Amino acid sequence: MTFPQWMRANLDRVEMALANYLPGMHVGLEKLHEAMRYAVLGGGKRVLPLLCHGAGELVGARSPGLEVASVSLEFIHAYSLVHDDMPAMDDDVLRRGKPTVHVRYDEATALLVGDALQSQAFIALTADHNGLSAEQQVALVRELARASGSLGMVGGQAIDLASIGRKLSRAELETMHRQKTGALIRAAVRMGALCGETPEASTMSALDAYAEAIGLAFQVVDDILDVTADSATLGKTAGKDAQHDKPTYVSLIGLDGSRELATQLGRDAHEALETLGPRAASLRELANLVVTRVH
Q1: Residue 231 contacts by C-beta under 8 Å, 6 or more apart in sequence?
Q2: How high is the pLDDT of residue 130?
Q3: What is the dihedral sign for C-alpha 16, 286, 144, 274?
Q4: 163 to each of 173, 183, 215, 246, how far by Cα in Å?
Q5: Are 207 and 183 in contact (CB under 8 A)?
Q6: How many separate domains does the chain show?
Q7: pLDDT of residue 237 exceeding 90
Q8: Digit-coded pLDDT (tens) for 198-226
Q9: First vs last Cα of the chain: how many Å apart?
Q10: Residue ranges of the alpha helices (H) in 153-292?
Q11: pLDDT of 83-121, one tens digit each?
């Protein structure tokens, strides 16, 4: 199977699982549940599920468990985007090529959509007969909760908001992005590995190093695309970082320096996987995808 075929097969399975784990149109909650599906389905790069599946291959994890882990990651990711786009945060009107949830519906609905999707992630992880053992469910809940909390994604967003108009050092910028973007990417890789047999410590160490490299690379490329791509290509409003006077890698080390850094981080990701052999082939391809993406 080629890498594009592998991607397509996994994306199709994840999309079906997302639809199945979202709540139906219950009486009295039609608007909320419709908005939840609007926020999640039919768009996005699905990098987190792909990383989860790629890491799962290393340990022989089965598809049902990987799909549940992927669903939970996407629900958390979607909730964070819905909240980030709201007027109190980044105040954006475009996401994944369509109006943001608070624009399509209203601010109160968007707030509730994010809240509900966060809960839905843990409902999926702890559902009966979801392909995961009780021990795996506990381990995955722990990983996802840590990655999405105040010392992870939410904390990174708090630092981001507090940094508007300030000039951060490179170390401070990296700390922010290791939490805001990198924490969920690291969780995706670790959760994929935890869906199989208990991985060796050396395997987890290699995966952590890989995830750290591509987590930072993803944000560096995001900063590059914000100044080099247009809104139609990105599916979101381009140029927002400069408009809001946010610290970025481009503002700190320049466009050429940022491109060099992204390339180096891609090499770091490949080096981290050297001891893992051919089963890490999909993770290697995903590292290339993160570094060379155009949206």
Answers
A1: 94, 237, 238
A2: 94
A3: positive
A4: 9, 19, 20, 7
A5: no
A6: 1
A7: no
A8: 889 999 999 999 999 999 999 999 999 99
A9: 25
A10: 153-162, 170-180, 182-194, 201-228, 231-234, 240-243, 249-272, 281-292
A11: 999 999 989 999 998 999 999 999 999 999 999 999 999
Banded model confidence at residue 27, pLDDT cuts 50, 70, 90: confident
Query: Containing domain of residue 242, as a range?
Result: 3-292
Tokens of 18: 């997302």
Q: What is the pLDDT of residue 25?
A: 79
CATH value at residue 49: 1.10.600.10
- Indicate the SS3 state at residue 117: helix
Pick the closest to residue 236 from 104, 98, 95 (CA basis). Answer: 95
d(CA 195, CA 95): 31
Q: Is the pTM of this model over 0.70?
A: yes
Tracing tokens 């843990």 back to the chain, one arrives at 122
Residue 103 makes CB contacts below 8 A (sequence gap 6+) with 93
CB 251 within 8 A of CB 226: no
